[in-house]
Amino acid sequence: MSVVVEPLAIPDVKRIRTRRHGDARGFFSETYNARDFAAAGIDLTFVQDNHAYSAARHTVRGLHFQTPPHAQAKLVRVLSGAIWDVAVDLRVGSPSYGAHVALELSAESGDQILVPEGFAHGLVTLAPHTQVLYKVSAFYAPDHDRGLLWHDPALGIDWPVSPEAAIVSDKDRTQPRLADLPRVFA
After folding, report:
1. Has residue 87 been placed in a domain?
2. What is the spatial distance between Cα 175 and Cα 181, in angstroms, rounded to a whole number?
3. Annotated catalytic residue: which of 32, 58, 100, 134?
4. What are the angstrom distances between the C-alpha of 141 and each of 16, 17, 76, 96, 134?
5. Active site located where (predicted)?
6. How many domains does the chain have?
7. Can 64 be counted among the known catalytic residues?
8. What are phi and psi of 37, to 5 degrees?
9. Is 4 exposed, middle or buried (CB count within 10 Å of its CB: 0-12, 13-18, 19+)?
10. Is 53 known to be catalytic?
């Protein structure tokens, strides 16, 4: 099997490691194989790939999610540069509601993160010229696009950038805090 799946502190969020075959030319890696993922317990259908480029270090994207019936699972990897990646549990009734997991992903490591439906997802770039590619399990639905304030103190996320130094979109600056967020994932 070409994939190793490691549950994180919130077990539904997983680090995915795929084998790299390298030589003097570089490497080859199968970053997604539906058969191997299913054998590892991940049976999702991805319908869209998204590619994000961030020119500057400390660019924040998120925390984003889509509401049902257009909720998205995401499989995230870095093509160049590095990110600090975060998933926040928004599933009402979950023992980890409002908690988060975070890890560094880089082009060098090739690791990925699987963020299931019911989580807000965000990242901050750790290097200039960072490119992120992520697969999603539902098409973009603008009427179901939502967010959570990335630096809400109630989340306790230890971001590697201060709010003052972060490069953030106007949309992400004005997202609601967890306490003001409607409960959308039962």
Report:
1. yes
2. 9
3. 134
4. 27, 30, 19, 26, 16
5. 64, 134
6. 1
7. yes
8. -65, -45
9. middle
10. no
* pTM for the structure as a whole: 0.95
CATH of the domain at 166: 2.60.120.10
pLDDT in tens, the chain (186 residues): 678 999 999 999 999 999 989 999 999 989 999 999 999 999 999 999 999 999 999 999 999 999 999 999 999 999 999 999 999 999 999 999 999 999 999 999 999 999 999 999 999 999 999 999 999 999 999 999 999 999 999 999 999 999 999 999 999 999 999 999 999 998
For 125, the domain range is 3-180
Q: Show the beta-strand stretches assigned E in the chain.
A: 3-7, 14-18, 20-23, 26-29, 48-54, 60-66, 74-80, 82-89, 100-106, 112-115, 119-125, 130-136, 145-147
Specify whether the CB–CB gap between 60 and 122 falls below 8 A: yes
Contacts of 108 by beta carbon, 8 Å cutoff, 6+ apart: 82
185 within a domain of the structure (yes/no): no
Q: Which residue has the tokens 């988060």?
A: 100
Give residue for tokens 């924040």: 60
DSSP 8-state symbol, 167: B
Which of 64, 70, 100, 121 is labelled catalytic? 64
